[in-house]
Amino acid sequence: MCFVSKGEKLLVEKDITLEDFITIKVASVTSTFPVLGPATVGVAVTVEVTVVNPLLEKVEDGVLMVEGSGLLQGQLSIEVPSLQPQEKALVQFNITPSKSGPRQLQVDFVSHHFPDIKGFVIVDVATAK
Predict the structure, then answer these.
(1) Residue 8: phi, psi to the nearest 5?
(2) Is the separation of the CB atoms in 89 and 112 below 8 Å?
(3) Which of 5, 13, 72, 109 is the most buried (most CB within 10 A)?
(4) Does the structure show a pLDDT above 90 at 2?
(5) Within 13 Å of residue 104, how many CA atoms lie on the same side as its CB?
(6) What is the four-CA torsion angle of 116, 29, 73, 126, rounded to 10 degrees?
(7) What is the arrangement of strands in the sheet containing 114-126, beginning at the earlier edge strand?
(8) Which backbone phi and psi does 63 adopt, to 5 degrees?
(9) Residue ranges of the Transglutaminase C-terminal domain (predicted)?
(10) CA distance to 4, 12, 31, 80, 120, per residue, from 83 (Å)
């Protein structure tokens, strides 16, 4: 709540979007340079997730919760290193797709300091040759 010069009350709202705090890249495990492109059924691919601490305080309990139908079995839980305010961390892990077609890989950055920060990427999975 803010007060203006005449003593009136004014409610100020601000929308904050968290979409810039998580980035996901999928690259072939065999590539020297990450080349975005279709994954293949039965072939491991590397996923790179960049997370940013959106707070002005240190976050020490961050966890990535990863899931995706046809991309991995069950859910992955990956600890994120301790992050200073506005600091970035790169987390890498491998997945082996089991189904072809467009698949959604969802990543949630979870901490008791803030609500879940969610991101996703569509992975085009090619049929094995």
Answers:
(1) -75, 155
(2) no
(3) 109
(4) no
(5) 6
(6) 110
(7) 39-40, 114-126, 101-111, 63-67, 76-79
(8) -135, 140
(9) 32-126
(10) 38, 30, 29, 8, 21
CA angle 70, 71, 72 (to 5 degrees): 100
User: In terms of CATH architecture, what is 16-126?
Assistant: Sandwich (2.60)
Nearest to 108 by CA among 72, 74, 78: 78
- Region of residue 19 (left: phi > 0; alpha: psi -120 to 50; beta: else): alpha
CA 33 – CA 39 distance, rounded (Å): 15
How far is the C-alpha of 33 from the C-alpha of 20, rounded, in Å? 23
Query: Taking Cα atoms as reference points, which of 71, 69, 70, 14 lies closest to residue 47?
Result: 71
- The whole-number pLDDT of residue 51 equals 83
pTM of the model: 0.72
